[in-house]
Each structure stands twice: as structure tokens, then as C-alpha cells.
Specification:
The chain is α/β, with parallel strands linked by helices.
């Protein structure tokens, strides 16, 4: 059944899967956002406010806010906190962490400790370079992984000749977040057959390596120096480029197939170039004629003229443009959000997380996710579910009260 046909009441494809997420931002948080949108129960396990180093607290809107998440704060450096976390692990399917290699072992919650309480648990460790190798302890962010994975060097240089800065966190989102989510889903499927858990070593840099593997594999097989302008998808030919319209806005052209390229040439009034799509000798002449043609009308006029007529032309949209795009609107890709101001649970630190009570955000848009019919209710990201989670883990109320009084959980 296509995802668009899933009933609104569907609990999600990962319903029943319980995930403990020790991350706050970055690829691991992108991973568990995906898992939650597929229906998994995701519990964000954060640091207790005021005890030790505090992680980055993302803005209320980041990572789709608190849509579908539960939260608890635990001091993992305290033995009582560690034991409380391990009691949560007993009934969990997956634990996701993004500490540097070795940290969870020093905290007493490494894979052997997790298996001791839950032999079939899946641990996903998400780091920049993996759990081993000479760079395993390097700090880094998205730009660093795009750099070492070949992505920046394979992209069109900026004006000074240097590699560009990507406009989206591709390494975090795809090289790390999607990579980790896919690995977890594979491990869950494998566990059905074997009954065994797994420790998944997710390297974001290796995720980027996979993203650039078409270029890397070509170099390995042929010795070609693959980079900007090397082939049809990296700017060598006029049929795959961007062009400015009369109003200063831009259009993207991806007319790779000869029939689409021919359609484009004819509608631009450039029929003379139909037979020269891959003729290197005349590419600048084709570009000059394409530029002149596109500069004669505004973007919207060209979209009306070209986009629906097998030319592979689309508008280059800003973020402000796309949030009201008719295609996304028709598929409910952008959802209305209502912050639950009546939540009876106490905030983790007694404060208001701020932010508007009504806003919009990107909804569950990937295939197989259940798209809401109306507004999505989200909770204040400072809200804690500690009491309910610990009670469900079998910890007696008096013990929960002791942990709260000690400041080990919140």
C-alpha cells in the first residue's frame, strides 16, 4: 500500500519499537527523528540540569521539536543514575548514542553492560569517523565530513576557487542520520531471524563516502580525475546547469535524456543546438544562447512554459518559497503545529522553553510515514516523563522519589 494510502489511524511501521536516545543534536538526533516519525517510541535521555557539563539545547523548532518524543534527564555519571538507565534498557529495543569512542564504556553503559541486562538490544554508536582508525577521536561537524568524503571537492567552486559551503547539513542528515536509521532498521529485521542484537558503528564520514561513491568508483576503475565539470551531472554540458530569469530568479535545468534536451531547445527557440547536446566544442555557445533565452522572461513564466512539458526544468526555490509550494501543500508536507500549553507534567528545569504556541514545520514526509490530517500537537521540549518512564521500568515509587530528591533524575 503506498504511504499516501495509509490510514490516518495507523500507528506507524515501527510501532512497538522502543528507542533510548542519548543525543541532543546532530546526526543521532536526525536518526531518532526518523525513527519516531516511523512510529517508534523514542525517549530522549538528557543531562540533569545543573549537574555537570550541559549539552547543546536546540531551539524549540529544531528536529521537528518534540513531535512524538518522550523525555527524561538522568545523571549517567552517578551510579544510581547509571542503574536507573540500565533499568530502562531492559525493556528497550535500541539505544542511540553519539559520544566519542570509549565514553559509554567509561560511564558503565557500553555494549557489554547493555547486553548484560538486555541480550538482544541494538546499540547504535554514531560518530564522525567511527569507533576505530586514526581519526576516530577527531572532533568535527558537517563541513568536515563533507570535506574528507570528497563532496566539497566534487562541487562547483565558489568565486575564489575554494570549495563551497553546502547549503544543507547533508553529512548530518544523510551521511549520519539516515545512515544510522537504515542500519537500525536492518538490525531490527535481522534480529527477527537471529534473536541477536548488534553494536552498529556508524561513521558519518563513511556515509558521505557512500554519497560520493559514483565519483569515487569511477576514479578507482578508470583513474579519471573526477571533479566539477567532469561529466554531465557535474556541469560539463549546458543541458545540466542553472540559468537566471529576467526577474533575477533562477531555474534549474536537468535535461539529460536527448528527448528532454530536444524539447528544451525547441521551447527556448534554440533548435540549432538539438544535435549538439554533448559536443564539447560548442558548449559555451549553447550556454550563451540558453542564458539569453532565459533572461527574456521571468521565472514564473518559464515555469509555466517549460516545467510540465518534459524539459526537466524547475524553479530554484528559496526556503520562503518552498514552504508555500503547491506540490508540498497538496501532499501535506508542511504541517501546522500546536504547542500543548496545558501539559500537566513539570518542565525539567522549572522554566518555559519559549517559542510560539502555534507554528509550522516539515511533517513526516518520507515514504511509509503517516501524514497527519490536521494540526500536530507537540509538547514543551522541557517537559519530563521521568516518573512514568521509571514506573513503567518497574522502579518502585519510593525509589523514584529518592532518585528525584538526590537529583539523579529529573
Amino acid at each position: 500500500m503506498p504511504s499516501s494510502a495509509l490510514p490516518a489511524s495507523s500507528p506507524g511501521l515501527l510501532a512497538g519499537v522502543v528507542v533510548l536516545d542519548l543525543s541532543s543534536v546532530g546526526p543521532a538526533a536526525r536518526c531518532t527523528r526518523l525513527l519516531a516519525d516511523y512510529g517508534a517510541t523514542v525517549v530522549k535521555v538528557g543531562a540533569v540540569p545543573g549537574r555537570g557539563a550541559q549539552p547543546i539545547n536546540p531551539p524549540f523548532y529544531a528536529y521537528s521539536g518534540s513531535r512524538g518524543l518522550q523525555r527524561i534527564a538522568i545523571d549517567l555519571k552517578d551510579p544510581d543514575g547509571r542503574d536507573a538507565f540500565l533499568e530502562l534498557v531492559e525493556s528497550a529495543d535500541v539505544v542511540v548514542e553519539s559520544f566519542r569512542p570509549g565514553v559509554i564504556d567509561r560511564l558503565g553503559i557500553g555494549y557489554p553492560a547493555l547486553m548484560a541486562v538486555n541480550p538482544d538490544v541494538i546499540l547504535c554508536s554514531t560518530t564522525g569517523f567511527g569507533q576505530s582508525g586514526p581519526r576516530s577521536d577527531w572532533a568535527g561537524h558537517d563541513i568536515n565530513y563533507l570535506a574528507v568524503g570528497g563532496y566539497l571537492a566534487a562541487s562547483e567552486p565558489r568565486g575564489d576557487g575554494g570549495p563551497p559551503i553546502a547549503g544543507a547539513t547533508l553529512a548530518d542528515a544523510a551521511g549520519g542520520g539516515m545512515h544510522a536509521a537504515m542500519a537500525i532498521m536492518a538490525a531490527l529485521i535481522g534480529r527477527r531471524e537471529t534473536g541477536a542484537g548488534a553494536h552498529l558503528d556508524v561513521s558519518i564520514a563513511e556515509g558521505v563516502l557512500w554519497l560520493t561513491s559514483l565519483a569515487v568508483d569511477e576514479h578507482l576503475a578508470t583513474g579519471a580525475e573526477v571533479g566539477p565539470g567532469h561529466n554531465i551531472i557535474s556541469g560539463r554540458y549546458a543541458c545540466y546547469d542553472t540559468y537566471q530569469a529576467a526577474d533575477g530568479k533562477w531555474l534549474a535545468v536537468g535535461a539529460i535524456e536527448p528527448k528532454f534536451y530536444a524539447n528544451l531547445c525547441r521551447r527556448l527557440g534554440c533548435e540549432q543546438w538539438v544535435a549538439h547536446q554533448l559536443d564539447d566544442e560548442v558548449q559555451e555557445k549553447i550556454r550563451a544562447d540558453f542564458r539569453a533565452a532565459f533572461a527574456s522572461r521571468d521565472q514564473a513564466t518559464w515555469v509555466d512554459e517549460l516545467a510540465g512539458f518534459d524539459t526537466c526544468v524547475s524553479p530554484v526555490q528559496t526556503v520562503a518559497d518552498l514552504v508555500d509550494d503547491e506540490q508540498y501543500r497538496s501532499r501535506r508536507a508542511i504541517v501546522d503545529v500546536v504547542m500543548d500549553a496545558e501539559d500537566s507534567a513539570a518542565p525539567l528545569d522549572g522554566s518555559d522553553a519559549g517559542g510560539p504556541k502555534r507554528f509550522r514545520q516539515v511533517g513526516p514526509v518520507l515514504a511509509g510515514m503517516v501524514r497527519p490530517e490536521g494540526p500536530v500537537a507537540v509538547r514543551d521540549p522541557a517537559t519530563s516523563d521521568a516518573g512514568a518512564l521509571l514506573e513503567a521500568a518497574g522502579i518502585p515509587p519510593e525509589r523514584i522519589a529518592e532518585l528525584r530528591a538526590k537529583g539523579v533524575v529529573a
